[in-house]
Amino acid sequence: MTQADTNGEHEESGESGEHSRSGEGAIDVLVLGGAGVDTIVYVPELPLPFADSHHVPSIESRAGQTGDFVAVGLHALGLRTHHLDMVGDDHEGELVRALHRERGIPLTEVPSPAGTKRAVNLVGPDGRRLSLYDSTRARDADRLPPDTVRALAEASRHVHVAITQPCAHALPLLLETGVSLSTDLHDWDGVNPYHEPFALAADVVFLSAAALTEPEKTMRRIAERGRARAVVVTAGAEGAYQLVDGEVSQVPAVRPAAAVVDSNGAGDAFAAGYLFGLLTGEPPARCGLYGAIAGAHACTVPATVTHPLGRDDLLARAARPGA
Questions:
Q1: Disulfide-capable partner of 189 in 24, 211, 293, 323 (CB 3.0 to 4.6 Å)?
Q2: What is the pLDDT of residues 146-194, one digit of tens each?
Q3: Structural domain tally of the chain?
Q4: CA–CA distance from 175 to each of 20, 132, 149, 231, 283 (Å)?
């Protein structure tokens, strides 16, 4: 791990970190934010009945929150990926650093005085999950160094922005660079004002239908008020819907190749697959197919195992009739 100083301390790790600053286009996708650790608890059912205690199969902490999962997914698909976020000098931070080091994904980390972000995910037998986020791991004063953000963004073809603190503060600078942006609003209800800056700044917007009463209305409002060229709403077993050029089309669901065991990271895998299609010049329908295949695969992998779909497997699955 090497030390660097760009308008504030940060550390850069990963096997190929040096190429990330070696000129325009040296990075395919810069992932901003979303680094952290989840403690996975498999529970007998959700909601979990009240009791003094429950015996569970396992409790395991592993690196992998939304930004980590997108970065790992993009890297597995062969895209040159770089991750930038605030990471603490703590056990959770070591897990995040180890994940990136083992996968060979460059990580530029800014010291986080509040510590590395963490959550507890309760996972039911059907793969559904309930996430409990530790709100003490982010501060209003947290900022990513502007010079670092600018340098990495200008070396990138695309930036995927997580909605975690402090990424909202970096949006104006990212817009100044002219780089294309994407974001995932997750289970936004279409009303919470925190999500709006991300929704209106991104060229590609992902979100879940979980909390939306009128998904199409929300999709169109994002496109009309912002700069999105594509708005994609994932709907689990119903597939997904995307709004492109004023037209809403369905992305059919893809049948998982194995039993569904865990939905953790499925939306992040979908985003990675979709962005892979986008950056390789595929039309929207093909991008949606790639996203659906990657998302379906993620549901067959336990959250304690980070095993994204590789490029060859994705393309082989997409080539099958009825994929």
A1: 211
A2: 999 999 999 999 999 999 989 999 999 999 999 999 999 999 999 999 9
A3: 1
A4: 20, 32, 11, 18, 24
